[in-house]
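Project standup — Tuesday

K.O.: blocked on the structure for the chain from last sprint. Re-posting the sequence here as requested.
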Amino acid sequence: MKNWLFGIAALFTLIFIGSCGSPCDNVECVNGQCIDGICDCERGYTGEKCDEELTPAFVKISTVTVTKFPFTPRNDAYWDLDDESGADLVIRISDNSKVYYKNTDIIGVKDNAEEGVDHVFPVNVRIEKLDNDIIFQIEDFDVDDVTFEDTYQFMYSFKKKLSDHIAGFPSTITFTDDRAEIVLAVTYAFN
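H.V.: unblocked you, prediction finished:
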């Protein structure tokens, strides 16, 4: 009889131990990890399964890299007519009410920019209104030979809402078409 009772006790012990799995066995965390049966979400995600994206408080653009630009104007002349050299690239970032970044002096100008070369501009721009149209403009910088004033000639621009390009929180955002391409290095801040 003792052996029989011992066998039943052993069987119940095995059943009990076998039914006590990890509290995370049946928990699916899409963008996070399970801790004690609850999803601990990665930064930028929320929800029971960490499957809902938060809206960033702002996007910080650390650099703009111009990877392609109109090497010659549409009239096939040179950007710098006085010495027939390549464009002296600068970047302007703005929306309808504010200029976030533009080169204000000769520092940061990419002189005689060559095709096929990445031209990196450290910009350190913070965009909070992600649904606003942001204009990323490539310009040719020059100094007027008569007045010695800085001049900027429009080369190309992209007008984009950042909110349309941040799904999944990529570390780079690329805007491209047949004449120009820029790559933004970005980070996100959440409340």
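K.O.: great, moving the ticket to review. The first helix runs from residue 2 to 19. The two ends are 67 Å apart (CA to CA).
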